Every structure is written in structure tokens, then in C-alpha cells.
Amino acid sequence: MSHEPAHVCLHCGLPSPPPASDAPGAFCCNGCAAAYSLIHSNGLDRFYELCNPGDACTPRAAGSRSFDEFDDPAFLARHTQALAGGHRRAELLLAGIHCGACVWLLERLPRVIPGLISARVSLHRATISLVWNATQAPLSRIARTLDSLGYPPAPLRTRPAALAAANRKDLIHLGVAGACAGNAMLYAVCLYAGIFEGIESENAALFRWLSLAVTGVSLAWPGRVFFANAIAAIRTRTPHLDLPITLALVAGVVWSVVSTVRGEGEVYFDSLSVLVFALLAGRYLQRRRQQAGASAVELLFSLTSPSARRLDPEGRVTTVPADALKAEDLLEIRAGDSFPADGVVTRGDSTADLSLLSGESRPVRVTGGDQVYAGATNLGSSLLIRVTRAGDDTRVASLMRLVEDAAQRRAPIVQMADRLSGAFVIGMLSLGVLTYIAYSFAAPHLALERAVALLIVTCPCALGLATPLTLVVALGRAARQGILVKGGDAIEKLSRPGDLFLDKTGTITFGSPRVLEWKGDESIRTRVAALELHAAHPLAAALRDGLEHEARPLAVTDVRHSVGAGISGTVEGHSLVIGSPEFIRGCVPDADPALLATAADWAARGLTPVAIAQDGRLAAVASLDDRVRPDAARAISQLRAMGFRPRILSGDHPAVVASVAAQVGIEPEHARGGLLPEDKLAIVADAARRGPVVFVGDGVNDAAALAAAPVGIAVHSGAEAALAAADIYISRPGLAPLVSLARGSRDAISTIKRNLWLSFIYNVVAIIGTVGGLVTPLLAALIMPLSSITVLTVALRSRAFAAARGRPQPEPGQIPANPTEAPAWA
In degrees rounded to 5, what are phi and psi of residue 574? Predict the structure, then answer.
């Protein structure tokens, strides 16, 4: 039988112990008591009235951080802005904001903190914008107050001030252009009504001059970007899209001004102002989509700690921002902390999660002399590390730069659209001149009108904007679905089916094998487990896990990794080599034929054989089983139906590869095993010379093939080298996302081609109508924005990476995957 708790916390409403005799009420913890005291003592009790009963709107419990790193000069330089009079501005990310009551409370902080001038909260972004007097209130004090109220602050690292300022400027321009367009259209309605109902000449002149005024503001302020780009195009002798736009605007406004001064003829102020607004709106939307894609990339890699515990020469620990770190600094990394920089362990013994960079999902032991990397997490005991690389020099930062650089690549179809737009600009300018000359002889009074109409109606903005916008929309949707595409060129290449090479371990299979059988010397099992502690791949992890109950600390030296083969080392004075049977056969010429026959029999059954040699003789063999992903067969079938030719390239035993191929429906002749990384590279490079090629892999041994393939795809939990070499990264496990990627790429390119045809048909019809006298400048100005909006709408409504196709449900019985980096011999 349930019942209400006898006491609830006065601050957060959670069950709490009975209150003390002198307390105003019950509190569940000291943090809530401190928060209540601060709120009550400053007369902010209305906060509790604004919280609806039952809502989780109260802040979380207060912390105990000092936030001294917020006062570090490096932090202030990067995350705050200096203002006049010793004031500073900063935007911080807050945890625990839930409702309007939180906003009400936080925006009254200037009452609580002397020196804090203003606090503005954005509920949907969970941010607070602060302006304070740095001489009266250090930022650390403001941060501690926020933390004491249950809103721990953090630097807003993903929204640079320059980007926010540029967006605000664009919005201001868009708002001004919209206001001018709206007013110009209202004045135009009056003039249009006068055509049918009659209007006095004085009133018509007034509305024309008012239209001229608002259109002049639109062209001189937000619209000046078109004129600046046109001037730059002329200076660089480059046919830019804004050149015909500018000519059309100039021709239209000159015609309209002359008509206004003369008091007769058509004016097109409303069309010109609407054109400026429509173009700016399309470009703003495109930039925001690009920023969203860039934010997805940055968020993917913004995993390093924003602060660090640095030891000074006297051994005292001080908290500093990660931006202030430099080489040779000594850092204390406590259990649960993220490493803020790359470094070498100088003291301590722990385990670390290195999955971001190594692809190994299992904790890795780190001790004195081992390298650790920014973004990794210390899972065990405290460590002392010496910084080797910090800030933008870390491996994570380098990887992010690779992704950002690749994202700047322009797809060939975008480059083609640019070339078409350039040729179109030159052609339309020439055609406009010819139209003017021709009408000068046939009907001189219509020559300028026809030329202006032609320039307006054939503006190529739809041709130039729809293509990149379609790709930006597709890349943004893909990023939200866990598919990071580094450049639009990969989308275009992937839309053309060809050879699809798949790595086996971790791609088709789960990449988490388990030991099934052991045959041979039982006494070496503990040595095998000890040596495999120094390897980071699925088969090594399987051997460690399978022999874990027999593992004990042993002296291991001379550890060497043979890429594509195995691992060797000295354990308790015994030379040990572990790897594929082919590798061991090369190391031990007189290998026991019975053990080799057993390994071959396991391979024929679809198991992965591993051979172990000790002191120059084959001592044992083990079989491992790696399950095929439940979605693999269906995904491969769907990809084949789309025109791809699936193949398997693996370093595993050929018989094992053949067994996996049979399970997923790939022909035996298209499944190759026993390959070294160099072999994979050669096969992929040779196929790429003959036609479209896609390679999918996850391990370090796949990096060369990923780089050589026209489209390289790194899958979930891939190693750093694979992520850096790939064109596309899929963060979700399984092959189903690969199907979504292929479909989305095909839909994106189809939308681009559809828009190119729409633009072509529109311009052909418009040219014929204008030259033939059927389209007046007024009608041209009305048609042109509609054509652009139509093409942009088609781009925005593209099916590419639509939400319905975004995240397929797992098949019945599918087990969540935990793939890791591919083994050195897989």
C-alpha cells in the first residue's frame, strides 16, 4: 500500500528526513538547504509560486566546484568579450533549466551578486548571457552562485561569438528586407487598385514615391550584398550569380525611378523589394543548414574536458581551463575524469576508455610510460600525466580538422551547376543586349522594357541555390541520424551503384567473438591471456575474456604487433607468438600437422582459428566464433537490389569468410579471406580504376583501403585511422544505416537533377515569352521569385534522409552491437 512521504524537501519537493527544530522546513540535502536560503534571503520566494505543483522545475542539488578556471586569462580570452568600462560579456551553458520559473529566478541574479549588471536566459537553448563588472565580481563568483542554486554553468564552446554576431546581422538584414517588401507591396496594392477603380494623380505619385523610399532602403542596406558581389565579380572577371541579379535590380530600379519622376509608365518597386527578401531568405536558410551540419561535426568531437587539475612546482593542485595547458604540464586525472590533453602517464595504474580513438570498447590498462589521449576517460584510480600535446594539437582536434577540411569539398554536381550558372550568366547578358538591339529597330519604345524583363525573368538564382541547398539539407538530416558525411562529393559518388567491398569483422559480424574450443598445451593459457592484455582488437579481447579466470600478473616484454598477422612477445622468459595459422606457419616451419588440421577443420565449420606458438613450436590452437549481425543479410539484399555488387574482403581464414558470405547471401567467388591490408588496398584500387567503388570497414588495417576507395565508409566504433581516412562515418551499428545512406544519397542527387531540369524548362519558357513580348517587366518580377521559391521548396521537401527512413528498427531478436576495432589479422 503506497502513501505520501511524511516530509518533502522545501526546495525540490523530494522525500526528505524530518526537519530540524530551528529549520524553516525539511530539506533532502545540504545543497537544497543552501539554495533555499539564498533564494529566500534575497526576496526571491516567488520562484516557488511560479513552479507548478508536480513539475520537475526546481534546480538540481548544488555542487562544490570552485570554478577558479573561469578567472584564468586564457578562459576569459576565449569565452568572454571585453566591453567598455571594465565590463565583460559571456554566454554560458546551464544544466537544470526546466521552466519559466527557472528563467524568472536566474534573470534576477543581479539582485544577489554585486557587480552583475544583467542576466538574460534562453530557455530553449539552456544558456544565460551575462554582463558584469570584472573589477567588482569575478566570473568564478557568478559561476559558484549559479552552481549553488543548482544550475552548474559550462562554457558554450560550440557557438562562437563571431558566428552568433553574423547570424544576428543576417537576421537584421532579413527583417529589414521583409519589412520593406511588405510596405512596398501595400503601396503596390493601392496602385493596382487604382488601375481598375481610378486614382488621383497626386495619390498615385505619393504611393510611387513612398515605394521608392522603402525600396531604396532595401537595396541600400540588406540588398547591398548583391552589388558588392557583382563588383567583385567584375574585378575578378568571374561570372558570378549576383551579376545578373544586380543588373536586373539596377535596370528595374532605374526604370521605376524614371517612371516615378515622369509620372507615367510601370514601376516595379514591390517586385524588386520582394526579390531582395526572397534571395536573402534563401541564402540565410542555406547558411543555417550549413552551420547545423558543422555543429553536428563539432559536437561529435567536442569530448575533451573543458578544465584540468594542474600541479604547480610545489605540488599544489589548481583547476585551470584546458585552453591554458601546454606541453610538459603535470596533470592529476581522477577516476571518472576525461583526459583534457594528450600525455604520458608518469605515475599510477588504471584503466581507460579509449574507444573514441582506438575503436576498442573494452577498458584498456594504462600505467607508467603509456600514452593517453584527450577525450579518453579514466575509469580506475587516479593518474599523474605529463602533457605532450594540448588544445588544437591533440589527436581529437587533428581528427576534427580532417573532417572539417573534407567537408569543404564541393560535389562535382555542385561544380557543374556553378559552371552552368557562369555560362548562363554570360549567355543571358548577351541575349539581353541582343534583345535590346533587335527591339531598337523594330519597336524602340519597347526595347528597354523587353531587355529589363529578360534580365529579371532569367535570374539564375534558382539554378545556383537549389543544388548546394539540397546537399546541405541532406547532410544535416544525415548527421541527425548518426551518419556523418564529410563532403557532398561522397553523396554524389554513392548515388552511382558499383562494387561494394565489406570488411567482415565488426562490419558484417558483431566484432565481439568468443572462445569456443581449445586444443593443445593447457599450461600456456595464462601466458596467452597476459600477452593479449597488450593488444586492442576483438580476437585478442575474446582470448582475454575466455581465459580471464586463469589470468594473473606476469612479466611481459618485447611486445611487437605484426599488422595483418598477429602479436608476439616474451612472457616469463618464454617467446610467445599468437596469430592466424598462416602467420604461425611462417614463424614455425615444423608446426604440428595435427593442430593445423584441427584449425583447418574449425575454419571449414565457419569458426575463426587462432594459433599459439611458444619457444619456436606450435603449442595450441583455439577456435573463436563471431556472430553475423541479424540485419546483415537483409541489408545486403537491399543494396544488391539497388544495383550494388557486394563483396567481402577480410584477413580472416578463407573458410570462415566463405561461411559468413553464405549466411548473408554473397557468392563464394566474391568473398576473399586471408588478406593483408596491402592486399585490400590493391584490390580496391584496381576496382576503382574500372568503375564506382565503395569500401566499408572499421579498423586500422582498413584505413588504406578506405582512403583509396572513391567512397570510404567507417562504421560504428571504428578506429581513429579509419575515421580519418573515410569519407563517411556511421555512428549506428549494423548494415541497415548503410541502406539508408545509399537511399538518401540517391534521393538527394535525384532532387538536384529534378531542380536543374525545372530551372532549365522555366528559363526556356521565360526566354521565349519575354522575347516574344508575352512577359512584361511586371510579370517577370512576379514570376522570378515564385520560380526560385518553387525550386527551393523542392529542395527542402526532398526525400533524402527523411525521418521515416532515418532510424530503422532492429530486427526481431537483434542484440545491441558492441563492435570494436578490427583485429590486426582480420
Answer: -100, 135
Task: Please state, in angstroms and rounded to a whole number, the distance separating the CA atoms of residues 565 and 649.
Answer: 15
Closest to 700 (Cα-Cα) out of 314, 359, 404, 246: 359
Q: What cell numbers appear for 290 in the block?
A: 550549413
pLDDT of 265: 74
Cβ atoms of 475 and 408 within 8 Å: the answer is no
383, β-bridge pairs: 333
Q: Give the residue from 707, 719, 722 showing the smallest Cα distance to 819.
A: 719
Instruction: Give dist(CA 130, CA 704) in Å, integer.
Output: 49
Alpha helices, DSSP H, located in 80-160: 100-106, 139-148
Cα 421 to Cα 242: distance, rounded to the nearest angstrom: 10
Lowest mean pLDDT among 572-581, 656-665, 789-798: 789-798
| SS3 call for 240 | coil
> What is the average pLDDT across 474-479?
80
Question: Would the CA dihedral through 369, 374, 380, 383 be positive or negative?
Answer: positive
What average pLDDT does this structure show over 111-119?
A: 88
Rg of the chain's alpha carbons, rounded to an integer?
A: 34
**Average pLDDT of the chain?**
77
Three cell numbers at 361? 570498447
Give Cα 481 distance to the centre of its chain: 10
pLDDT of residue 714 exceeding 60: yes
DSSP code per residue over 306-372 = SEEEEE-TT--EEEEEGGG--TT-EEEE-TTPBP-SEEEEEE--EEEE-HHHH---S-EEE-TT-EE
The DSSP code sequence of 10-52 is: TTT--B-PPPPTTSSS--SSHHHHHHHHHHHHTT-THHHHHSP
Q: Judging by DSSP bridges, how do beta strands 556-562 and 566-571 pair with one another? A: antiparallel
Which one-letter amino acid corresponds to residue 785? P
Distance in angstroms (rounded) separating the CA atoms of residues 267 and 265: 7
Q: Give Cα 514 to chain centroid, integer Å.
A: 34
Closest CA to 94 of 64, 128, 119, 117: 128
Cell of 686: 584496381
- Cβ within 8 Å of residue 652, ≥6 positions away: 504, 505, 580, 608, 673, 674, 825, 826
Tell me the pLDDT band of 131, cut-offs 50, 70 and 90. Answer: very high
What average pLDDT does the segment 69-84 reach?
85
Output the DSSP codes for 159-176: S-HHHHHHHHHHHHHHHH
Residue with grid cell 599510477, as numbered in its chain: 348
DSSP annotation of 775 reads: S
Classify each residue of 179-194 as buried b or exposed e, where b means 16 or more C-beta atoms within 10 Å of its C-beta. bbbebbbebbeebeee
Q: Measured between alpha carbons, how far is 758 from 561 in angstroms, rounded to an integer?
A: 58
Which of 251-265, 278-292, 364-378, 748-762 is predicted least confidently?
278-292
Q: Are 93 and 127 in contact (CB under 8 A)?
A: yes
Q: Give the active site residues.
A: 503
Cα–Cα dist 732/366, whole Å: 28
User: What residue spans of 533-644 are helical by DSSP H?
Assistant: 538-546, 581-587, 593-604, 632-641
pLDDT value at residue 699: 59
3-state SS class at 622: strand
Q: What confidence score (pLDDT) does residue 214 get?
A: 94
Q: What is the C-alpha to C-alpha distance for residues 193 and 181, in angstroms, rounded to an integer?
A: 18
pLDDT at position 175 is 92
Minimal CA–CA distance to 568: which of 819, 824, 366?
A: 824
Mean pLDDT of 580-598: 85
Please choose, from the candidates 680, 694, 700, 691, the residue with its C-alpha nearest in 3D space to the C-alpha of residue 735: 694
Kindly provide the b/e burial profile for residues 227-246, where b requires at least 16 CB atoms within 10 angstroms of the residue's own CB.
Answer: bebbeebeeeeebbbbbbbb
Angstrom distance (rounded) from CA 310 to CA 139 = 20
1 has a pLDDT exceeding 60? no
Q: For residue 385, list its beta bridge partners.
A: 331, 345
3-class secondary-structure state, position 194: helix
